[in-house]
Structure formats: C-alpha cells, structure tokens
Amino acid sequence: MAYNGKIFLQKVIDIQNITLEHKRRGATQRWIYRELIRERFYIAESTYNRYLALPAKAMLRKLLEAEQKHPRLFD
Q1: pTM
Q2: How many angstroms separate the CA atoms of 52 and 75, rounded?
C-alpha cells in the first residue's frame, strides 16, 4: 500500500489527543512536548505546534470518504 497521508494524519491526531488529555490536567504545552512528545515521536517543538493547529480529524474524514468513493485511486 502506498503512503497516502493516513499514517501522518493518525500521528497528528495521536499527538493532539495526548496534548488535550494532559492540558485538562493542567500541564503546559511546553511540558507536554518535552516530557511526552519529543522522545516518542521525534519531532521538533515547532513541528509539534504546527501539528496542533491542523484540523487532522476533518482531514482524515475527508480522505477516508474520498477513498470510499474512488477506491481504485488509492491502490
């Protein structure tokens, strides 16, 4: 299977979910990045901040809808 962005979007969603979970507990984004994200995902802090700004769930939903409508394009 060719790389089509689903893996990337799932990674971004995982990072966003980790951040939301710990922000509810009162942690800062900087602490979350340094203690939880940096060593697990090997991304820079600027990349982390950019990932948090992406509407990844909506993008993944659109990608999956397009894949269902036109499955031959994603083979």
Answers
A1: 0.87
A2: 30
